[in-house]
Amino acid sequence: MNTLIIRGVRPYGEGDPVDVLVRDGVIAEIGSPESGDAEVIDGDGAVLLPGFVDLHTHLREPGREDTETIETGSRAAALGGYTAVFAMANTDPVADNAVVVEHVARRGREVGLVDVHPVGAVTVGLKGEKLAELGTMAKTGVRVFSDDGHCVHDPLIMRRALEYSKALDVVVAQHAEEPRLTVGAQAHEGEQASRLGLQGWPAAAEEAIVARDCLLAKQVDARLHVCHVSTAGTADVLKWAKARGTKVSAEVTPHHLLLTDERLETYDPVNKVNPPLRTSTDVEALRQALADGTIDCVATDHAPHAVQDKDCEWSAARPGMLGLQTALSIVVETMVETGLLDWRGVARVMSERPAAIAGLPDQGRPIEVGEPANLVLVDPGARWTVRGAELASIAANTPFEGMELPGRVVATLLRGRVTATGGRIPA
Ligand SMILES: NC(=O)N[C@@H](CC(=O)O)C(=O)O
Ligand SMILES: [Zn+2]
Ligand SMILES: [Zn+2]
Fold first, then answer.
1. Mean pLDDT of the chain
2. Which of 31-40, 192-201, 278-287 has the lowest mean pLDDT?
3. Running DSSP on this structure, what letter comes out for residue 270?
4. Most Cβ neighbours (<10 Å): which of 82, 102, 226, 253?
5. 236 catalytic residue (yes or no)
6. What's an example Gene Ontology biological process for this entry (predicted)?
7. Which residues surround ligand 3, an ion (CB under 5 A)?
8. Considering only CA atoms, which of 416, 360, 396, 386 is closest in space to residue 117?
9. What is the 3-state composition of the chain as percent helix, strand, coil, each rounded to the nearest 5?
10. Best CA proximity match to 369, nearest among 14, 11, 18, 20
11. With bands split at pLDDT 50, 70 and 90, how would you rate the model's confidence at 421?
12. Model confidence over 286-309: pLDDT tens digits?
């Protein structure tokens, strides 16, 4: 029998510190259990939360193992407090068939640091032309389908995908970007883009697709998930759609909760991302929408890129930024320290809601006796300085380089096994 005791932690940051006994991967006792010969983790008053679940991670394997592998991405995830991640399908080859998704799942299990759930592509080769074999992939256990990186822009194909997803009891996650409105787009369409001479990416290109997809999802009574919401207008559309009973959920990234297009001043492509960084009005609306549940959860859109794809002129650089190891701290900075969320709220947006959206039965569970010990310990008082080179990812493209951020992951447990502690992966 494998037992472990976490001493002096505060579940959801509430009440006096308690000890938590974990036996065989399950929470066995909460209070002041006998430790016996159990392995001890000193909680030191840390906040205890359910392990985080990321609905939107790019692990780059297969195809771009020079920037991230399932192993290095899993390490970053564990260090960031995650116990489950969804690996996006825009790999090379694309995860649009059972062979690729099964490879990703198997490799994730071999590494064993975080539950790696492959996302299946909606269309063959992410081309938006022909539906992929959703049923075959669903049979292997795929729960989420997405062409992320590309929008499923053809309304008929999107409608068919939603119909199939309903029959298969899976969810389609849409990268909402009307392609005709974003030809050559480089930055949020607005004053800053004009000043810098960058082609604009209008808010309406996102909002129009979200509105359309909400209408389609309502019509066919399917679930829809909206990736990386970036505008105040999208939050309005979601509020309207939810009020009329649409089964829609949505995520926001940490970077869209903190950064604005003012960062583009330097033309440093580390700030280039899709959808682009928007305005402070959008940032404020996204924070409010996350706090009031209009936006369900935080997802990282962790997007590693090689130096040569980032340290180049703006228009040639690839969009995307790292996120797994900084997500919690950005949420603490933007949502907890501003009083918009308490720790229960953090558990909701980083663990419970994403687990429910993806239909994971053993993640995002309450911290109670008999529940699986997928847990994260957070030191709310700690501050640390982000250094891309020190992150576990192979790539180092963090926009938070040099920033001092609040909140640190002290330890992560996956089914009672320590997958990260003190900023390290146990040997
Ligand atoms: N977010 C990004 O800017 N890039 C993502 C694709 C995506 O999420 O659309 C990537 O794969 O690099
Ligand atoms: Zn995307
Ligand atoms: Zn993405």
1. 98
2. 31-40
3. G
4. 82
5. no
6. 'de novo' UMP biosynthetic process
7. 148, 301
8. 360
9. 35, 25, 40
10. 20
11. very high
12. 999 999 999 999 999 999 999 999
For residue 76 the two structure tokens come to 């970053």
Per-residue pLDDT, averaged over 140-144, amounts to 98
CA 387 to centroid of ligand 1, rounded, Å:
21
Q: Report the distance separating Cα 350 and Cα 330, nearest Å.
A: 12
Instruction: Give the ligand whose atoms come closest to the C-alpha of residue 176.
Output: 2
State if residue 43 touches ligand 1 by the CB under 6 angstroms criterion: no
Location of structure tokens 């096994």: 417
Q: Between 194 and 38, where is the model more confident?
A: 194
- The answer to whether the CB of 276 is under 6 A from ligand 1 is no
In terms of Cβ atoms closer than 10 Å to its own Cβ (0-12, 13-18, 19+), residue 166 is middle
The encoded tokens of residue 36 equal 């016996």
Per-residue pLDDT, 37: 84
If one compares 299 and 34, the residue with the highest pLDDT of the two is 299
The answer to whether ipTM exceeds 0.95 is: yes
Compute the distance from residue 130 Cα to the ligand 3 centre, in Å. Answer: 21
d(CA 152, CA 264): 28
Contact 347, 32 (CB under 8 A): no
Which H/E stretch holds residue 347?
helix 343-347
Percent of the chain, pLDDT > 70?
Answer: 100
Which domains can be identified in the chain, with CATH numbers? 3-47+371-421 (2.30.40.10), 51-358 (3.20.20.140)
Q: Please report where in the chains the tokens 């049979």 appear, as a residue.
A: 139
